[in-house]
Amino acid sequence: MKMLLQSFEEVDQVITETNSLVSETDRIAALCDCYLSSEVVPAELLELDPFSWKYYSVCKEFLLTITGLRSYSPIENERASYLHQNTEEKRYVPQIYQYKNSRALSDFFIASGHSLQTLDVRGGQSVLDYGIHN
What we know:
Blueprint: E1 3-5, H1 8-19, H2 24-31, E2 34-36, H3 53-67, H4 74-77, H5 95-98, H6 102-119
Parallel strand pairs: 1-2
Helix pairs in contact: 1-2
């Protein structure tokens, strides 16, 4: 069921509910049906160049508002305690493949492709995504 979230309180409620789910694929499926109202997102984001430092700054401040963090460090804030690396085989397997769920994998590729298409990324440009890496 699709949900349009109108406030950060509603976001907190959904996060609390999804944290109680057993598997990461269940969490992803539940969160994929949630949308944050554009009225909650800083309006200036729609007008800024997504490759500019100003855009980065506004996004970072928005992230701090959403998460309630005082500061942001990818190495500390992007870790998920319920995910772990396969150390027995001594090889790196990207997290998205560790779920072994084709629905989650296809949703990831669709979302990534849509992001690249929307950003109109050109040769020589890069996109950094903190959402997948350990």
